[in-house]
Every structure is written in C-alpha cells, then in structure tokens.
Write a structure and sequence with these properties.
The chain is α/β, with parallel strands linked by helices. The protein contains 22 helices and 16 strands. The strands form four sheets. A seven-stranded mixed sheet has the order 10-9-8-11-12-16-13, sandwiched between helices. A five-stranded antiparallel sheet has the order 2-1-7-5-6, with helices on one face. Its main location: nucleus.
Length: 633
C-alpha cells in the first residue's frame, strides 16, 4: 500500500513559532539576540531570554507568526498588532503630546482630568509652575514680533521675514529638560507605557520646538530606543545565523560573512542528494548547518570534529532541524581520517572481534536492532507516572523526552558504520591509483580493460554501492594548515568534483595555491623535475583565489548613502576541481604539441600574422614591388 503523505511536507518551514524552537530577536538598534520558545513560564531546563539585564519568559510567543513585532515591557514581551514597525510612528507621539497639553491645561483650571496616565500628567503639571514648556515658549516668541510689527505699521510698511530654524542657539547644559531623573524612574516603576514617557520627555523639553526637523526626528528616535524598545521575531536561517554570530563576535567565526557563506555553498555545488565532506572547526559549525539545511535531508553531510565530541552542537541545534535533516548529518572524529589505517584496523579487531566465530561484530548495531518502537513502559516507570506524578504537564514533558531519547538511539550511526563509510571513500581512491595511468587512446574508454589487477570498472553501466562512493564536495574552514589538510582529504573526494577552502587570511591560501599548481605525481621517481609539464599528473584544475567586498547601502526617499561602518574583510576563498588520479594527465608528447601550435597559429596568433603578411607580399600589396614588376614587364 503506497503512502499518501507528500514527502515535501516534511521540508516545509512552519509559518508560526513552535514550542522549543530557537529564534532571533532583531532590535531597532541592530542588536540580535538568540532565544528559545519555552512552553513553560518558568523552567529549570531551558535558559530564559535576557534583554537589558532582565529576564523574560517566551511561553506567550508560541504560535505567533514569524515577523511579529514585540514591545519589551517591564515584565513580559507584548505582541503588537500586524503592521507595526520596530520604531513607533511619530504621529502617535504628536497626538499624545497634544492630549497631555490639554490635560495639563484642564488640571490648572481645576477641572477633572480625563487623561488615563495620571502620573505623566502630574509630572508635566509640576514642571509648568517652574519652567515654561516648549509650547508656551514658542507662543511667547511669536507674540513679541507681532507686537513690534503693530507698533511699526503706522510709520512704514515692513516685509514679513521667514523665521529660520536651526541649531545654532542650542547649548548642551542639561537644563533644557525639566523632568528629573527621579520623576522618570517614578514613571518606570509605575509601569507607565513607553510611549507616554517619550511624550512626557518631548513636551517638557524647552528646546525641542527650536530644533530642526531632522534634529527632532533624531531626538524622538533616541528616546524611543531607550524607553520604548521593540524587537521582531525572525526565523533562524543560514544567512541570519551567520549575520547574528558575525555581529556578536566576528573573531570566533574567522570573519565569515553571510555573502561569503553563500559563495562557499554555491561554489561547492551543495544540493539535494550530495555527499559533502566538511571541516569547519574554525567557524563554529555554521557551514555544516548550512549544508544540512540546503540539502533538505536528502544526501549526507560528513562533518569532522576534533576532541571527544563536537564543540559546536548548540550552534547546529539552533537551526531547528527535522528528523530527516538530523539523519543526514553524520559526525566523524578526526582520528578516523587523519589516523593510522593499520592502527584503526587493529583496534577494531581487538574491541569488536568475536572469539568464537572470529568475525567482527558490531555490538552497537546489534543493540540498536533489538530496540522496538513504540516501546512499552516498564512497570516502575508506569507506577511513577500514575502515582507519584500528578501534574499532566510533567507527564507530557517526561514522555516527550523519552521519545526524543529513543529517536536518537534508533537513528544514531555506530562507530563501525562511520569507519566503514570513511574507509570506503579511501578504498575507491586506492583502486584508482592501483590501476595506474592509461594511454591517450584508452583514456576515453575507462574501465573497459577489466583484466588489469586492481583496476576498478567505472563506466555508465557500473552500479557502485551508495555507501562506498566518494564525496561529491569538500569544504575546508579550519585554522590548521590548509595545504596539509587538503592533501589529506583529497583522496576522499571524487574526481571532477569541486573543493572550497575558506580562510581568514590570504597568505595560507597563497601557499596552497602554489602547491596545487606545482604538485604532480610521476610514475618513475628517478625522473624528478625532468618530466615535461605535459606529461605530469596534476591533482587539481581551475584554481581560483577570490575575496568579496560587501557594503550595505541605505536607500531613502530623495537620498542614498552607503553604510559607513562595515566589516573590512570577509575572508578569502580558494576554489578548484579535483582531477582523476587515473586519467587526469595529458600524455601527449612535445612533438605533437608543436604540430598543433603550428597548425592553429602558435601563441597569441603569431602564426596567423606571419601567414597574412606572406600572402600580402605574394599578392603584390606593396607599391614599390608593383612598379618593379611593371618595369620588368
């Protein structure tokens, strides 16, 4: 019976925030904070979201769509309606200022106050007795010129001059704001909305009305960022993950920018169904997570790590991978690749060899096959859940953790499986080398001569097992020597497949570039450097060393300018394609090369120029030659 479930439904990203998902909070001041949607208000298992030295619960954010704007309150994150921006609209602030001024006037007359924010109104009313507000100051300034014009109108007619507003008379002496710090703290302690506090600060500023429009906008924006902070829920993707980590501390990821990450994935040809070998110990696992997300669970990503376990699992888990994507990621220790093959074989025989049968037995795989799912609860576990635990939330949390634990056991690869997977890639390369180079005529039909000892048949009709094939891409981003690392990992890469090396500095990649250009393999070690260039077996082709220059531009209505604070460097990339160790050589002799160059015109068209000049002379193109021929005739 065929399944009716569309496999693409497992790859679709949910539009809303789910429980236990990681997400990003983008603030208006370019801050970015990682957070997790915890289903409980208080939980010891999950860390809280910390903003401005205060902790906030994220249980009320579950179910909200990505892109929702939140306002940071005193005790919680308040979701705002759809259409709100990170910076509030200035028209709302202006309207609140007018309402506060009206409520202040009615309070001075002794009538009843209609403003709901009594604290802000009282503060504004107190300041009116001591220092005039910006509205009264502006009114007095307008009345005085009017009186002068009335007195002078009897003598002569004057042309009214346009009032020029600039910042030449502003003095930063901390006396323009009539609200004291104690009064502002009083508003904050009474949980007054941030918009009300911003409106009170503007209405009690004696110099706000005398500022230019741009200065007023900057003043309002600065106060909104301080007293009315907002953030947006953003989905974690390879681009947003790299941007957030680069903004936090670029040195930890070797200055890897999001544009450089895109070039690495594109040049490595990362797509569904590929087998990718990744070494990204220098960039905290960002490239590994990006490869898994781009492949969508189809294929496999072999990620090498140093130590007892990967040190950047928290970064990879922030991508909220599905079960299919987690199965595609396989962690392999450095010792499986860089260790001694004979020592690994002896270790395997010593640990896993059965004494009775003399065969290698995978104990972990045998235990995994014995696990049945769904697994029934043990009697003591059932008794604990029914008698001791009476809270339904705790029971649900216990069962979900148990299900996740069994999922890891059933999908985890054993050490012997990973070792066979890595050694299989190496065996294919050794079979290539054992076959030796072929002649120029036989290189077109690789694999037809099946009698060669050690030769592997590789034609279109050959069915190579999926587990023993080589990798389709190789990505290296490590602080170790890139030259030695590449030469050690190239045997695991299939011929005609790309490799990409990322490094923070240029000099190590230059050394690798020169090594690959001059690196060759000769059959007879006695020949040495006397082997002609056309008969050398190179290991790579199409080498390119690139870097990118990235700048963000601000485009507004009527004005455009680049961002003045940008990163200086986003790293360097070395690209190349591996040649086949068996057929990756040009065995054409030097005499044949000379004949071809003579036929096509040599270098830079020298032959063509000589031939055209000869034909011109033969056709009588010169004037003096024509006169000589005419006299002779």
């Amino acid at each position: 019976m065929s399944s009716t479930v569309d496999p693409n439904t497992f790859l679709d990203q949910p539009p809303n925030l789910r429980a236990n998902d990681y997400f990003l909070l983008h603030f208006a001041d370019n801050r970015q904070i990682f957070a997790q949607a915890v289903p409980y208000k208080r939980s010891k298992s999950f860390p809280p979201c910390k903003i401005n030295k205060r902790t906030y619960s994220t249980h009320n954010l579950i179910g909200l769509p990505y892109g929702t704007v939140l306002e940071v309150g005193r005790d919680e994150l308040i979701p705002l309606p759809e259409g709100e921006d990170l910076l509030p609209d200035e028209s709302d602030i202006t309207q609140m200022i007018e309402q506060q001024q009206q409520s202040t006037v009615t309070a001075a007359d002794g009538s009843k106050k209609n403003d709901s924010d009594a604290a802000a109104v009282d503060v504004a009313a107190k300041t009116d007795d001591d220092t005039p507000t910006s509205a009264t100051t502006a009114a007095k300034e307008e009345e005085e010129p009017a009186k002068d014009n009335d007195n002078e109108s009897n003598t002569e007619t004057t042309v009214p001059s346009k009032k020029i507003i600039d910042n030449r008379n502003l003095i930063d002496d901390n006396t323009s704001q009539t609200l004291t710090q104690t009064q502002v703290h009083t508003l904050l302690s009474t949980q007054t909305p941030g918009s009300t506090i911003v409106a009170a600060l503007i209405s009690n500023s004696s110099t706000f009305s005398s500022k230019t429009a741009f200065s007023q906008a900057k003043y309002v924006k600065r106060k909104q960022l301080k007293y009315q902070p907002r953030c947006r829920i953003v989905r974690i993707t390879p681009s947003t993950l790299c941007s957030a980590m680069h903004l936090r501390d670029a040195r930890k990821i070797c200055n890897l920018r999001e544009d450089t990450l895109g070039q690495v994935l594109s040049n490595a040809n990362i797509c569904a169904g590929q087998r990718v070998l990744v070494v990204d110990t220098a960039v905290q696992g960002i490239i590994t997570a990006s490869c898994v997300r781009r492949m969508g669970g189809y294929g496999s990503v072999l990620s090498l790590y140093c130590g007892q376990q990967p040190g950047y699992l928290d970064v990879v888990n922030r991508m909220n991978f599905t079960v299919m994507e987690k199965q595609a990621l396989k962690w392999i220790a450095f010792g499986e690749v860089f260790g001694d093959y004979d020592e690994k074989k002896r270790q395997t025989e010593r640990l896993l060899k059965d004494e009775e049968s003399g065969e290698i037995v995978d104990v972990e795989k045998r235990d995994r096959d014995l696990i049945e799912w769904p697994a029934s609860l043990q009697p003591h576990t059932r008794r604990y859940l029914t008698e001791d635990v009476k809270n339904e939330k705790k029971v649900s949390e216990f069962l979900s953790k148990r299900s996740a634990r069994f999922t890891r056991k059933l999908t985890r690869n054993t050490m012997l499986e990973l070792r066979e997977l890595v050694d299989g890639c190496r065996d294919v390369e050794e079979n290539y080398n054992a076959a030796g180079p072929t002649s120029s005529t036989a290189s077109a039909t690789v694999g037809e001569n099946k009698e060669d000892a050690g030769a592997m048949v590789i034609d279109d009709n050959t069915d190579i097992p999926q587990d023993v094939r080589q990798c389709d891409s190789l990505i290296i981003a490590t602080k170790y020597d890139p030259t030695a690392t590449l030469l050690r990992l190239l045997p695991y890469l299939a011929p005609s497949c790309p490799f990409v090396i990322y490094h923070e500095f240029l000099e190590p990649l230059l050394e690798t570039f020169r090594t690959l250009q001059n690196y060759y393999v000769v059959e007879n070690q006695e020949d040495g450097n006397e082997v002609p260039m056309m008969r050398r077996r190179n290991i790579a082709i199409n080498l390119r060393l690139t870097d990118t220059w990235f700048r963000e531009f601000q485009v507004l209505e009527g004005r455009t300018h680049p961002n003045m604070s940008i990163s200086q460097n986003g790293g360097y990339i070395l690209l190349g394609t591996k040649l086949c160790p068996k057929t990756g050589t040009n065995e054409m002799d030097e005499q044949k090369v000379r004949e071809i160059r003579a036929r096509v015109g040599g270098r830079r068209g020298t032959r063509r120029k000589n031939v055209s000049a000869k034909r011109k002379n033969e056709s009588g193109g010169g004037g003096k030659d024509n006169e000589k021929r005419a006299k002779e005739s």
